[in-house]
């Protein structure tokens, strides 16, 4: 059985639109999940099976590839959980 990957419910609409257009979706995983996801592995999700196509580790939030698009709430939440191990940004596509 495949492992499950979850996403913030407030981002579902954007994820659904991107997946319908065969675009990569991105999700940030904080310290407790750093290193958990691997490129090429397929995970179950609320959007069906998703395959990890890219993975990048960061130590500082200011290096986040979408930093300018993050809301203040997202910045606060991510900062709260990246202190120990940094964070990963994962790109997924429909499998």
Explain what the structure shows:
The chain is α+β, with helices and mostly antiparallel strands and 95 residues long. The chain has a single domain (9-94), classed as Archaeosine Trna-guanine Transglycosylase, Chain: A, domain 4 (Roll), CATH 2.30.130.30. The protein contains two helices and four strands. Strands 1-4-3-2 form a four-stranded antiparallel beta sheet. The protein is globular and about 30 Å long. The two termini are 15 Å apart.
Strand adjacency order, main sheet:
1-4-3-2
CATH topology type = Archaeosine Trna-guanine Transglycosylase, Chain: A, domain 4
Number of domains: 1
CATH first level: which class?
Mainly Beta
User: What does the main sheet amount to?
Assistant: 4 strands, antiparallel
Average the pLDDT over all residues and give the rounded result: 94
Return the CATH architecture.
Roll
In CATH terms, the superfamily is Hypothetical protein
Report the end-to-end length measured between terminal Cα atoms.
15 Å
- In helices, the fraction of residues equals 10-25%
Order of helices and strands: HEEEHE
**For the CA atoms, what is the radius of gyration?**
13 Å
What fraction of the residues are assigned to beta strands by DSSP? 25-35%
**Total beta strand runs:** 4
Number of helices: 2
* Shape annotation: globular
Structural class: alpha+beta
Q: Which spans have pLDDT < 50 for at least 5 consecutive residues?
A: none
